[in-house]
Design brief:
The chain has one domain (2-468). The radius of gyration is 22 Å and the shape is globular. Strand 5 and strand 6 form a beta hairpin. The chain is built from 14 helices and 20 strands. It is an alpha/beta fold and 469 residues long. The longest helix has 25 residues, at 337-361. Helix 7 packs antiparallel against helix 9 (251-268) and helix 12 (308-318) runs parallel beside helix 13.
């Protein structure tokens, strides 16, 4: 939720400030805004401007309807979509992705993604791991939580990790911090008023069972001045001194740091402004917007306005966020695969094209790594009953761009039905190793400790995709 009131004024430090503010602070499991903010930098490279935008194609994208078309396969496999040429010689791409085809040289297309955990959420696409990995100590943390641990600082004007995912990834808390604990969880603004994403009936039940307060509230109002908030924070720190002395785990010290960053974020107004698309140049908003008429035809598909999620991600990165996750739904096409893709793929096509060309024009593309992928692929054969493609963990696809990667290439190949990888299989963790490489993080030398102090490497597979680096 973003609810802004009150006049602005400028301070001698040149920052735009709000005259009055307060934070409504309820995160996942009832944590406050301060609880969700980042701890101080442990990696010593918190000033880096490099970032990752992680786009989850919720439900599992059909590889053979997007970037791995099989025009010579039987009709029940090749499907309805015509292949078109792209800017990469020899790469045929779906007719529903013409904008991506026009800038294909800015992408690396992975056709042989393997190692899917076959879990219907976004956790593996956020961490590289099965959700059961290290479950006995809280589970693995997602990449954004790792970055919060390594590079977050109370002095940052924006949280390190922002989760914009909706639908299934929200319900199943796919951006969770695992054994790092809730202090390193994502900042999760409620974007439901900006981007509608209806939940399936089953997911409504799941979300209700988890209780309320799934988003982080940020509100500025006339009830509390910035100076008064700082005074109150100082008072709370004094009152908590006895608790801190008895806190062997250091949780109180951590909360103090989060509180300091909460004050900085709220008083600067920079992060709040990034979440407000009305502050963007209308011409840029128009650039990210699909033409009218592309309305939701069925199910839980995104509305046409969801292309502006990509703009929100760019604005957050500009504001200093290091990892932004967003989702585009619904690729879970057990039925009506072709009608759903005719609606959903133009959203991905338009949004990714706008994001990449915009970042490039702003001189940011080499510093921002982008990945778009899902939790698994879809069956080569369309089911005869519902005209859908079902779950297919044997092979999937991913598209990468930016981050200084060597783009303009196709990596891996599948058999004639797009059912199995036959050359250069690429594991989810290899993609994450590449993203960490783009961020300048040395996986061989970097560990994070669990609550018992035991160190863990960030990934089991630490070598990035050699073709891209």
């Amino acid at each position: 939720m973003l609810d802004i009131h009150g006049p602005r004024f400028s301070h001698c430090d040149g920052l735009s400030r709000r005259a009055f503010l307060s934070a409504g602070a309820a995160g996942f499991c009832g944590l406050t805004l301060a609880d969700l903010l980042r701890a101080e930098s442990l990696g010593g490279i918190g000033s880096s401007t490099k970032a990752v935008i992680n786009i989850h194609l919720d439900g599992g994208p059909p590889q053979m309807d997007m970037i791995d078309l099989k025009p010579n396969a039987p009709r029940e496999i090749r499907g309805e979509f015509r292949p078109i040429d792209s800017k990469i010689p020899g790469l045929l791409i779906s007719e529903l992705l013409p904008k991506i085809a026009s800038i294909a040289d800015r992408f690396a297309f992975i056709r042989s993604l393997v190692g899917a955990a076959s879990q219907h959420d976004a956790f593996q696409c956020q961490s590289g791991f099965d959700r059961k990995s290290l479950d006995s100590i809280g589970g693995r943390p997602t990449m954004g939580a790792v970055l919060s641990k390594l590079e977050g600082s109370p002095a940052d004007p924006a949280p390190c990790f922002v989760d914009l995912m909706q639908g299934r990834p929200l319900v199943r808390n796919s951006a969770r911090p695992g054994f790092l604990g809730p202090a390193y969880g994502p900042f999760r603004p409620d974007i439901s008023k900006m981007f509608e994403r209806p939940l399936e009936d089953g997911m409504k039940g799941e979300l209700k069972a988890l209780g309320g307060d799934h988003a982080t509230s940020l509100a500025l109002n006339r009830s509390l001045s910035a100076e008064r908030m700082k005074t109150r924070v100082g008072l709370l720190q004094e009152l908590d001194s006895l608790k801190r002395s008895a806190d062997s785990g250091g949780q109180m010290d951590a909360l103090d740091r989060f509180t300091r960053q909460a004050v900085g974020i709220l008083t600067s107004g920079k992060f709040a402004d990034a979440l407000d698309l009305e502050k963007e140049d209308p011409a840029v908003v128009e650039r990210y917007s699909l033409p009218e008429g592309n309305n939701r035809p069925l199910g839980t598909n995104e509305g046409a306005g969801s292309t502006r999620k990509f703009l929100l991600a760019r604005r957050l990165v500009e504001a200093g966020v290091r990892c932004v996750s967003l989702s585009i739904s619904d690729f879970d096409t057990h039925s009506s695969n072709y009608p759903r893709m005719r609606h959903t793929l133009p959203i991905v096509d338009h949004g990714l094209h706008a994001l990449i060309t915009d970042l490039e024009e702003r001189g940011m593309l080499d510093d921002v790594a982008i990945v778009a992928w899902g939790e698994f692929g879809r069956t080569p054969k369309v089911n005869s009953k519902n005209g859908g493609r079902d779950h297919w963990p044997k092979v999937g696809m991913a598209m990468l761009a930016g981050g200084g990667m060597k783009t303009g290439q196709i990596i891996g190949a599948t058999d004639r039905y797009a059912g199995e990888a036959i050359t250069r299989p690429v594991h989810y963790q290899e993609v994450f190793a590449t993203l960490y490489h783009c961020l300048g993080i040395d996986l061989a030398a970097t560990t994070i400790a669990d609550s018992s102090g035991r160190p863990h490497y960030l990934l089991d597979r630490t070598e990035p995709i050699s073709e891209l680096v």
